[in-house]
Design a protein that fits this description.
Number of domains: 1
Distance between the termini: 13 Å
Number of helices: 8
CATH topology: L-fuculose-1-phosphate Aldolase
Shape: globular
Radius of gyration: 17 Å
Strand content: 5-15%
Order of helices and strands: HEEEHEHEHHEEHHH
């Protein structure tokens, strides 16, 4: 198996993991940058993540044009991925999802911050991007590169951004890290919501705690340990 084949198989598994862990449902998607062509990326054709197969994986340029569509339907929100890859050379994988736990933080003035060590990937700041600010009334879907680039600017150098009334985008330095960030971004949001039921004073992670935890959580052994667990849970263990 070539490295490229292995990467595409990981992308299939990543779709299945995100579905199994409740990050995506019928909607949502994950992409990965081409390892040899940074001006291209891989993303499934338009299909629910739980159902993605190897034959569904398509290659795109960074303007989101397919290299070989072969009649397959495409996600209308692929500009999310292409625009972030254009703006962030350090990003190797992008996840877009509508996890219900995160949405309230894009609707209110309550900031979403990391409160548990496994959510260190959220960093110290999670911006909220509102499509209405630049584009007025829309369907809230990112259907063109202008909207995608505006979202990428809203994301900035952060690992995650909330999308008002829509969901979120989460990125990573590799596909397995992006999956980890997306799962624990959802988990963290749920824990903050639960904590708010007890009291208003929540103790969040400090900047120092976040940076020290990243060194452990992003270590190859730790990421592999989590990936193997999630792969088994979704039935893709190899």
């Amino acid at each position: 198996m070539s490295d490229l084949d292995a990467l595409c198989r990981d992308l299939v598994t990543a779709n299945h993991i995100l579905a199994r862990e409740g990050v995506t449902d019928a909607l949502g998607h994950i992409s990965v940058r081409h390892p040899d062509r940074p001006d291209r990326f891989f993303l499934s054709c338009s299909r629910s993540p739980e159902l993605v197969k190897l034959d569904d994986i398509m290659e795109y340029d960074l303007d989101c044009n397919p290299v070989d569509q072969s009649g397959r339907p495409m996600y209308v929100e692929r500009p999310i991925h292409g625009a972030i890859y254009q703006a962030r050379p350090d990003v190797i994988s992008v996840v877009h999802n509508h996890a219900y736990e995160v949405i309230p933080f894009g609707l209110t003035r309550k900031p979403l911050r990391a409160c548990v060590h496994t959510a260190c990937g959220a960093g110290t700041h999670v911006p909220v991007w509102d499509s209405r600010t630049t584009f007025g009334d829309t369907s809230l879907l990112i259907t063109n590169m202008a909207m995608g680039k505006d979202l990428a600017r809203g994301l900035g150098e952060n690992n995650a951004a909330l999308m008002r009334g829509h969901g979120c985008v989460v990125v990573g330095a590799n596909i397995r890290q992006a999956v980890m960030n997306a799962i624990y971004f959802k988990v963290n949001a749920g824990l903050v919501l639960q904590s708010m039921l007890i009291g208003d004073e929540i103790t969040y992670l400090s900047e120092g705690e976040i940076e020290l935890t990243k060194k452990i959580a992003y270590a190859e052994n730790a990421v592999t340990r989590m990936w193997d667990y999630w792969s088994r849970r979704c039935g893709d263990a190899r």
